[in-house]
Amino acid sequence: MTLKNISATELKQKIDANEALFLLDIREDYEREAAHIPSVHIPMGEVSAKAAEFPKDKEIVVICRSGRRAVPVADLLLNDLLFPNVTILEGGLLAWKQEIDPSLDIE
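Given the sequence above, the corresponding structure tokens read:
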């Protein structure tokens, strides 16, 4: 199946509307400590081992710094582990900082 992207603005609208989302931050611990948005933190290398705990009835939004690392993780969830609704935060947290929250401490 084809990977979908969501813009930071669209994601913020879904969060504000209390849509059923599972926000998955796949960055490393040190990156998460510097800056994050409310989400579940599971580093990229641990996702396949912990995927059984993820909800199948929510849209999974994969989040990283720039959106690049999210692609293989989203592909794994969608095409190998058969989660029905997987999306990538386009531009990652860098886009979130630019469009939503300039105070986010991420470069």
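The chain has a mean pLDDT of 96. Try to locate this feature in the token string yourself.
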